[in-house]
Amino acid sequence: xxxxxxSGRRAFITGANTGIGQAIALGLAKVGAGIVxxxxxxxxxxxxxxxxxxxxxEEVRADLxxxxxxxxxxxxxxxxxxxxxxxxxNAGIIRRANAVDFTEEDWDAVMDVNLKSVFFLCQxxxxxxxxAGRGGRxxxxxxxxxxxxxxxxxxxxxxxxxxxxxxxxxxxxxxAKGINVNAxxxxxxxxxxxxxxxxxxxRNAAISxxxxxxxxxxxxxxxxxxVFLASDMAAYVHGTILPVDGGWLAR
Length: 251
Known about the structure:
By secondary structure, the chain is an alpha/beta fold. The chain contains 8 helices and 7 strands, in the order E-H-E-H-E-H-E-H-E-H-E-H-H-H-E.
């Protein structure tokens, strides 16, 4: 039996329209999971990729900055399509400015998507699972800035540090109840969120020189870690923050 198979399971993935979320959706679909792709943007490209790989994918539209809308989207997907086995909290935004100039608006916008909705989606998942007498998997997307400070991204750093702490807390509360809560901490991955860094010649060169693997990561580099954490092979993995960073933290 393939211990990595997710056949018969459903995964609710936020921010699955592009980048890391899209790669995770495709990776989970390739090992059998049915995908619910959630976010405020069209998921048409992701649906096409999943279907081309022989999988199933449906779209749920919701503004994940609004925790009530996020909860309603999750509960609706559970109630109309059946239980959700895997929750992937991937959606995230970033705002860049010097800390001395950072605005309350930029602080709140990032925290609402990156941390507040993450917690309340985890809560919604657990409530449904407990009511149904089921377990499940939660995979949060953390960051290198869950471990480091970074520069010019105060709300992003705070939110991703919060994701790491929240992952550990929920694992402590829910591990014995059958829910595995873990996180993946991507390194420097070529996505829309890092476009500004990649376009800055000096910063790009400095980052690239520090990565032992010698390259920026690609979204698909995260998919394998997600498949592992979602699978039966990770049954005894709780509360871990798994770096997928090309060796960045080892440097």
